[in-house]
Write a structure and sequence with these properties.
Order of helices and strands: HEHEHEHHEE
Strand content: 15-25%
Distance between the termini: 17 Å
Strand order of the largest sheet: 3-5-4
Helix content: 25-40%
Number of strands: 5
Shape: elongated
Number of helices: 5
Number of domains: 2
Length: 119
């Protein structure tokens, strides 16, 4: 069976995004030099191979190399107010941008303007 992390890893690698392994039971990457693009997982084959060998690990996105940014929104009302002051339409972004939600709302924007959703 393919895990959610494996599916996500292949999907992101297919988009040309650089991925980092997050070992099970940790909150972030732990390998020395994880933030370097040359240490990242960046092809579907690498993603498949890594998660086949480490099926309980999670995946993270190396934003600096992927041309992406993540925004963790914990208070929607305050975020709308701040965005409005900056001339940014929060609701338009939420309607069109790829996002993964957990406790709050997270928006992952591709710098090329692609609107791809990770299921």
């Amino acid at each position: 069976m393919t895990s959610t992390a494996q599916q996500c890893a292949r999907y992101c690698a297919d988009l040309g995004w650089y991925l980092v392994a997050i070992p099970a039971g940790t909150k972030g990457p732990t390998a020395m030099g994880w933030q370097k693009p040359e240490k990242a997982i960046y092809t579907s084959d690498q993603a498949r191979d890594y998660w086949t060998q480490n099926p309980t690990h999670n995946v993270g996105l190396l934003h600096s190399a992927s041309g992406t940014v993540a925004l963790d929104v914990d208070n929607v009302a305050n975020t709308r107010t701040i965005f409005a002051e900056l001339g940014i339409d929060y609701d338009a972004i939420m309607a069109s941008a790829p996002r993964i939600s957990a406790h709050g709302r997270s928006i992952c924007l591709d710098s090329s303007g692609r609107s791809q959703f990770i299921q």
